[in-house]
Amino acid sequence: MTIEKFEDILAWQKAKQLTIYVYGLFLNSRDFGFKDQMQRAALSIMNNIAEGFERRGDKELSNFLFIAKGSCAEVRSMLYVAFELGYVSRNDLNNLYNLTVEISKMLSGFIKTLR
């Protein structure tokens, strides 16, 4: 399959799914600092994939994919705190954790194909 636009990238599609999930989960949160950081980190994953793809260079794309991977780890790290503070249920923790691991693996595979 040829990727013609960033929307064709499966990791971007999964990152969008993660972002929508995170935004919905924290919609009514009153911990504005935590909520903002969690939402920004999730949004950063999909945006860095998109921006890197649009740069049209494998080296630049690879750099943006590494940034997206970092943001993915940030979301996963924050999930532990969110769970401990009672902001998310065990089920949400598991779902989001699994999604971040899946996205991270996809990004690693994508990076390898660019090298």
Helical amount among residues, as a percent range? over 70%
Cα-atom Rg, whole angstroms? 14 Å
**Number of discrete helical segments:** 4
Mean pLDDT: 96
Poorly predicted ranges: none
Task: Please write the string of helix (H) and strand (E) elements.
Answer: HHHH
Main sheet attributes: strand count, strand direction, barrel closure: none
Class based on secondary structure composition and strand pairing: mainly alpha
CATH topology: de novo design (two linked rop proteins)
CATH architecture: Up-down Bundle
Shape: elongated
Compute the number of structural domains. Answer: 1
Describe this structure in words.
By secondary structure, the protein is mainly α. It has a single domain (6-114), classed as 23S rRNA-intervening sequence (de novo design (two linked rop proteins), Up-down Bundle). It has helices at residues 10-25, 32-54, 58-84, 90-114. Helix 2 runs antiparallel to helix 3 (58-84). It is elongated. The chain starts with 9 loop residues before the first helix and ends with a helix.
Write the layout of secondary structure elements.
Blueprint: H1 10-25, H2 32-54, H3 58-84, H4 90-114
Helix pairs in contact: 1-2, 1-4, 2-3, 3-4
InterPro entries: 23S_rRNA-intervening_sequence, 23S_rRNA_IVS_sf
Pfam family, one: 23S_rRNA_IVP
Protein name: Four helix bundle protein
What would the keywords be for this entry?
mainly alpha; 115 residues
Short description:
It is built from four helices and no strands. The protein has helices spanning 10-25, 32-54, 58-84, 90-114. Pfam families: 23S_rRNA_IVP (PF05635).
